[in-house]
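Hello, quick one for you while I still have it in my head. A protein chain has come my way and I'm curious about its shape. Can you walk me through what the tokens say about the fold? No rush at all, and the record is pasted right below.
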Amino acid sequence: MFEEAFLAVGQRLGALRAWLVVALALCIVTLAALVGLGAYAWYHPAALCRQQSTSLILGAGLPDGGTVTPEDWARFVDAAITARFPDGFTLLDAEGAWRSGTTGDTIREPAHMLVLVHPNSRDVDARLDAIVADYKAQFRQESVLRVDRCADARF
């Protein structure tokens, strides 16, 4: 009788330990997934957003000392931006400053800013990358600043 009771308690503890091991394993897997997702969100914060706001800062200073003319800018907007985003965008004139990698001097120049609110998609990302590539090639720019943020926009 005592042995039967002892075995019954042992079986219950064994089942409890098995459930405890399963629960602990699930906790570890869940924690690992959350850490992985957190790391991904840290390095790609806008990747988990449904909508994004992207700003491109396009310097208008040219390597020869001139600037992008209003006519050249208007043609670029029509050919490279409007053609890729006919539904709309915002353009702002700006003033930029950056440190030259060769001289160390701070250079100030006029700039143009494109602001676009869009769904988070590879297609939109590719179109934005194409605008950057076109601008750099056409106006001999070293870089274009791109800022992506999560957005919640309504019209």
